[in-house]
Fold these 2 entries.
Entry 1:
Amino acid sequence: MRLVIIGAGFAGMYAALSAARLRDIQGVSPEQLEIALVAPQPTLVVRPRLYEPHPETLTAPLLELFHAIDVVYVQGSAEAVDASARTVGIAAADGVRKPLSYDRLVLASGSRLFRPNIPGLAAHGFSVDSLDDAVALDRHLHGLAGRPATDGRNTVVVVGGGFTGIEAATEMPARLRAILGNDAGTRVIIVDRNNVIAPDMGLDSRPVIEDALRQLGVETRLGVGVASLDESGITLSSGELIGTETVIWAAGIRAAPLTEQISAERDNSGRLLVDRELRVPAVQGVFATGDAARAACDDDGNYALMSCQHATRMGAFAGHNAAAELLDLPTRPYHQKAYVTCLDLGEAGALFTRGWERKVEMVGEVAKKTKHEINTVWIYPPKAERAAALASADPERVTDL
Ligand SMILES: Cc1cc2nc3c(=O)[nH]c(=O)nc-3n(C[C@H](O)[C@H](O)[C@H](O)COP(=O)(O)OP(=O)(O)OC[C@H]3O[C@@H](n4cnc5c(N)ncnc54)[C@H](O)[C@@H]3O)c2cc1C
């Protein structure tokens, strides 16, 4: 029997760990139940940190961990899923294509930034969404030091005043000072269509965020969209032209395109609708998890967000349930009652909220310490030590905050 997991992000990694844990507990050998994980690289890209400097350091190796828990790593990108033949078509880096058959499939292919068709965006927009994008932005920022010291060089525009946009913008004053010096007269401006900053963060959080932006001198242009951009500036829907050589797009995430390979219902973000066990109901043998799935996480009407916090736990449930079906064991409904957010606010500290109503629990330096702990410890893979790694993947315990 073979369980195939697509994706080596937070969800895929925990799906593999959790499936391997159940196999181990049941005394089933890797020959009886093969667990294979398909991804372009055997590394975890620590996406929640990609707004930070030195993005090239923000990955964690997974190969040793996979060896320790007897998970077979398959290098490549899944291009097609044939759910009736139960095969995945995989393209390796050298272009060679091969099919891989499965008895159960866990789709954990994550998400990516959605770039609308705005003139100039594809050619001139930067982002902090993928490792390559974050590295390209970092190189560009360092390259600014060699350019004439114009207002455009010294101005960074971040489009999107949600979670990612705020983290990218509040980190930027310090990043620019480190590259351009203290006297460069840098500006950072957040542009958002909404009339308020961080519309999803709730009323309790907004004053904390607005205070941080004021403290850091980050400006906002709210209630306006983007008409176009080029290498020297951005034009807003209000007609305002801002001279800038750096536009960072942080407005809108969609599930990775692989979800389109499954003939089943998807939401507006391209996520596959799944049942409480994280199965794709219309397609036998297929589970979806993490940013690739839309799942209820409690009985109160809350749904998992595209977040690392949800992806790790959803991954653990999906891996467990896919292996459980193959081993004729009961499956477990995914549930995740606790929900917190920890928003980095650069040199203004951080903001920690609890619950879906996002009640502020910590701000400033105390919250910053927690953010640091989350970003440098909690979201990293477990060590490549079999017993401890498998124990860390109990679906009931993963990220139970
Ligand atoms: C700048 C930034 C800040 C963030 N901050 C936070 C935060 O503070 N807190 C939080 O909870 N979340 C945060 N997030 C969101 C979080 O990173 C995502 O929700 C999380 O990465 C989702 O995990 P995942 O495993 O579902 O997908 P991903 O991490 O996207 O991993 C997907 C995996 O699938 C692989 N893959 C994709 N397509 C294929 C294919 N066709 N074949 C094979 N492999 C494939 C990819 O290579 C990757 O290994 C942030 C994201 C960004 C970009």
Entry 2:
Amino acid sequence: MHKKLLIPGPTEVSPQILQEQTRLMMGHRSKEFSDFYGGIGGKLAKFFELPSDYKPTTTTSSGTLWFDIVGRCIVKKKALCCLNGAFSQRFGEIVRNCGKEADFIEAEWGSVVKPDAVAEKLETGEYDTVTMCHNESSTGARSPVAEVGKLLKKDYPDVMFTVDSVSSMGGDWTLPHEMGVDILFASTQKCFALPPGLAIAFVNERALERAKEIPNRGGYTDILEIFEFEKKHQTPFTPNVSLLYALDKRLDLMLEETYPRIYQRHQDMAALTQKWAKKHFEMFPEKGYESITVSCIKNTQGKNVKELNQKLAEKGLEISNGYGKLAEKTFRIGHMGEWTVPGIQQALDWIDEIWGLAK
Ligand SMILES: Cc1ncc(COP(=O)(O)O)c(C=O)c1O
């Protein structure tokens, strides 16, 4: 039996979207493709209300490619990397791997790096780029990106702000210009409810200007090459056209539902899950910083998540254990994409039933 994915990604993909991928192929250097791909850019710009100095792009890659793009093409000399979980840590490590210097500010897992801590480090004047993860899928913590963005715009206008929005873009409210972010990126297998394999990014002119000053941008990672091809609505390398068909359909559905309604639906799913979690367990993230797409719950009753998933599998559902060092100490419910409140309620009822939790 198929298990519906209620994990922090990949999330469930509907048959309607899967079907889109069976459309016949087109050559990616054809006018037909440019028209089609230009349409996707237009829909992304419309949905995310991008001002004219921000450009959208898609890369045939998972989201992690953008850690490398930032490391290679945006960090000039030294980055300040905000770490509060596994993915933000990987971002920082990749920046170092790209041969750039990077200092890490580390918050406890479950907490977030606060704007004051960022300001204190930036005062040294040592950094040209800040990295942050908006929604730490490993801990369910949501970072105050817009507050940090505001601080940077006000006091450090030359510092680039690059943000991993992999598990929040399109579910949570993620307009890059409102957040003061220069590069914001995500993967399709999260809130876009598509199969994995594409990344979506928004990049502003400032970031492209910065990239021009930086040598050794690589090949697949060369952001200037990506946006050179965007001018003619193409990609530098062969794109996954089938996934782009699916993305095109998804954007139509998102535009139809509208962003405020999608955002509200994610807030409602998070509120329901948090209420349930607080009744039986505790939320893992610091109060006030809980994600609205991934709920990370402290397993205060020491319940067996593996056994739960075996029983949920019989009903056609899967949730997630904690990530890395948080396995067994926490468990996670990823409510994103096409999930709705009734679907989450059903899942919570089943968990109640299997674990014998009082209603
Ligand atoms: C917050 C966050 N950042 C980055 C990644 C890595 O994304 P990808 O696997 O698409 O490269 C993930 C994947 O789960 C994630 O949740």
